[in-house]
């Protein structure tokens, strides 16, 4: 049975996936090295987005997670999540390799044909999120059979999070699981504290606190002359900002979801996974095409990349939803009639 939709969760996914899209547009321009004089400004925007969007996306994915009762339920749960995430994962991996053949060195995340043989241990491009999310579902699902108290899972993953920050383990999946399982379960844990009727006055303290925290974070980041943005693999102590980004989002999103423009992002939230997978190749192709025809204005790249790119991504999602064969690759649950639960 599909989990009951909650508007502010859909809104959160919709707005957050737009921020992911925006981050990749700007990061692509930074990585292209076509606008060296503005690299610092581009990287500052990327950093502001990256300390927020993926942590919040993981927490939103974990919102509906509940401990499983027995191994039989776990196996059913594991099979459904494997199909639900595995088919889009394989689809994107093929697209990434094809894109590499077309774009060559202009592609930000290079991938060769032989890389398809190793995607079971090393994901390609943005598909890492699906790979890690699948591993989190299976790991926490199995653990929850034996540790049914959500507080126990929260404590265990919090310890893993600290280990990932201070003593990173150089095994890809292990490090990712330690780092992101806590953020995922934080989303589930916070479900108990979300108020049915939140108000801006009550949220103002969190907004102020997070605002000050981000300012201090960015000032320290700039002072250290960072040449890159916070890592999603080994963020060091900088990763401590991730849980606060989640707390801020879970405080503000229920309020923003009541504003008139929210309906747009609520609709996008229902297709957030499809947008996530399709935006990366489309943004890359658009950037490569603009550079190829001699467009070297940053503002033109931003305007066309953001406005036209977003419209193109959503048009492509619409086509995938309308054509059953294409829909299977991004919405396998609709074709296979899977009950997506937890």
Automatic annotation (TrEMBL):
> What main location does UniProt list?
membrane
So where does this one cross the membrane?
A: 12-30, 42-65, 86-108, 128-146, 153-171, 177-194, 203-221, 241-261, 273-293, 299-320
| Membrane topology annotation | Multi-pass membrane protein
Places the protein is found: Cell membrane
- Which InterPro entries does the protein's record reference? Acyl_transf_3_dom (IPR002656)
Mind telling me which Pfam families this protein's record contains? Answer: Acyl_transf_3
Molecular function terms in GO for this entry?
Answer: acyltransferase activity
Boundaries of every Acyltransferase domain copy: 7-309
Q: Keywords in alphabetical order, please.
A: Acyltransferase, Cell membrane, Membrane, Transferase, Transmembrane, Transmembrane helix
**What PANTHER family is this protein classified in?**
O-ACETYLTRANSFERASE WECH (PTHR40074)
What is the protein name given in its UniProt record?
Acyltransferase family protein
Instruction: State the species of origin.
Output: Streptococcus dentapri
């Amino acid at each position: 049975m599909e989990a009951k939709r909650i508007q502010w969760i859909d809104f959160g996914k919709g707005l957050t996936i737009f921020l992911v899209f925006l981050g990749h547009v700007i990061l692509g321009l930074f990585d292209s090295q076509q606008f060296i004089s503005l690299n610092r400004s581009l990287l500052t925007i990327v950093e502001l987005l990256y300390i927020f969007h993926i942590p919040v996306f993981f927490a939103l994915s974990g919102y509906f997670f509940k401990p499983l009762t027995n191994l039989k339920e776990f196996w059913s749960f594991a099979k459904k999540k494997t199909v639900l995430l595995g088919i889009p994962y394989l689809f994107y991996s093929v697209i990434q390799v094809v894109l590499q053949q077309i774009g060559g060195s202009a592609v930000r995340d290079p991938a060769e044909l032989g890389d398809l043989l190793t995607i079971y241990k090393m994901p390609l491009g943005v598909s890492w999120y699906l790979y890690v999310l699948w591993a989190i579902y299976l790991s926490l699902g199995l653990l929850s059979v034996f540790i049914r108290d959500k507080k126990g899972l929260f404590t265990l993953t919090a310890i893993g999070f600290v280990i990932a920050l201070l003593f990173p383990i150089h095994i890809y999946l292990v490090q990712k699981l330690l780092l992101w399982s806590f953020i995922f379960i934080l989303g589930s844990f916070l479900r108990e504290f979300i108020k049915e009727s939140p108000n801006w006055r009550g949220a103002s303290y969190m907004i102020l606190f997070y605002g000050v925290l981000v300012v201090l974070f960015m000032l320290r980041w700039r002072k250290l002359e960072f040449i890159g943005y916070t890592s999603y693999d080994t963020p060091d102590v900088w990763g401590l900002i991730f849980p606060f980004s989640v707390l801020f989002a879970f405080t503000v999103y229920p309020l923003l979801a009541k504003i008139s423009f929210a309906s747009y992002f609520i609709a996008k939230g229902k297709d957030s996974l499809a947008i996530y997978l399709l935006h990366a190749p489309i943004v890359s192709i658009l950037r490569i095409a603009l550079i190829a025809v001699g467009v070297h204005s940053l503002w033109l790249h931003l305007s066309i990349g953001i406005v036209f790119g977003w419209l193109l991504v959503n048009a492509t999602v619409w086509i995938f939803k309308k054509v059953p064969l294409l829909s299977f690759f991004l919405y396998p649950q609709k074709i296979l009639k899977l009950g997506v639960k937890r």
